[in-house]
């Protein structure tokens, strides 16, 4: 036992207990369930990229502290990727910063840019690290809720406008959006950009699923809209795009001022990370378009297996336009409480999922929604949907 009377965890973090992922993964293990909770692939990325990491390690590249902003090879590759995909031009020396995954980029950006008392608007449901990082920065989070409409979760632009106050400093925008699978449209992004310019707001964009967009959806970086280049910190990551989530290589792109600000915080978090992997990710970013097309096609096929199976099992399915998650509504199954449903599901059906309510401040808004990940082998997904069929019975 600890010996001081005061609670150990400080007030800023007190509300953030252990993440649901730990609880659910333990439950998966205990019950022998298929874990469709946490979003990591069960197949590693391209063999040649894995080999590139081995080569870097053997050649002694990155085994000691790499340069603070990231190795030049990777910064150059990130800039080239932004140019090739989006026609965005960044100076690899002044406008690119390598981070320990998108997670550190998000933390460093918020710690650098948010003053205590500043309001930060995020789309709810939101990725779980946002709330904790806003709290660590002393900011106040202001969620704007995405709501179901015609088969997907949509942003109410009037609600977003109404959420901006004189204390709003920053919009934190995630598209393609985890957990809903929503991809913001050109019109929605244009309206967000206009609002940011009108109210003189900074914007952080979380684009870790930029390469996972399906059907007619298109990922358009918010920074490409008029007036956004000087106010947007864009965040990317290799983890999801190349199926190496354990490597933790992410990046920030933005104007020299913004990147310098983010670096001021980042240098005291990890300082640097992932040395040899940085060289491998530089090679990954230069893979031909066919890699990205095949990866997307593969994930699309998986989405369709899981989405169809969940519909057969009786869920209402929100077919995602991006990411590797499917959000479902459990009410057609006669259920209303996603927490209770997810805690019981391993025993009932041998499958683990995540209650979307954990991604909400307005927990009641998220109560009937449950998220399943489809970044798993087709055989695993087929086994899972086979097991879930018994819910329909
Ligand atoms: C996975 C994920 C991250 C974290 O990315 P890392 O590069 O693994 O740190 C950030 N944002 C969203 C929305 C994610 O799903």
Radius of gyration: 21 Å
Order of helices and strands: HEHHEHEHEEEHEHEEHEHHHEEHEEHEH
Shape, please? Answer: globular
Measured between the Cα atoms of the first and last residue, the distance is: 49 Å
Instruction: Output the structural class.
Output: alpha/beta
Mean pLDDT: 96
Into which percent range does the helicity of residues fall? Answer: 40-55%
Largest sheet: 7 strands, mixed
Low-confidence stretches: none
The distinct bound ligands, ions and cofactors come out as: pyridoxal-5'-phosphate
Please give the number of β-strands: 15
What's the number of helices? 14
Provide the β-strand percentage band: 15-25%
Strand order of the largest sheet: 2-10-9-8-7-3-4
Description:
The chain has 393 residues and is an alpha/beta fold. The protein contains 14 helices and 15 strands. The chain has helices spanning 20-31, 47-58, 72-86, 101-113, 128-136, 157-163, 186-198, 238-242, 256-266, 275-285, 289-312, 338-349, 363-366, 378-392; strands spanning 34-35, 96-99, 119-124, 140-145, 147-149, 152-154, 168-174, 202-206, 232-237, 250-253, 316-318, 325-329, 351-352, 354-355, 369-373. Strands 2-10-9-8-7-3-4 form a 7-stranded mixed β-sheet, sandwiched between helices. A hairpin with a 2-residue loop joins strand 5 (147-149) and strand 6 (152-154). The N and C termini lie far apart (49 Å). The model has no long low-confidence stretch (mean pLDDT 96).
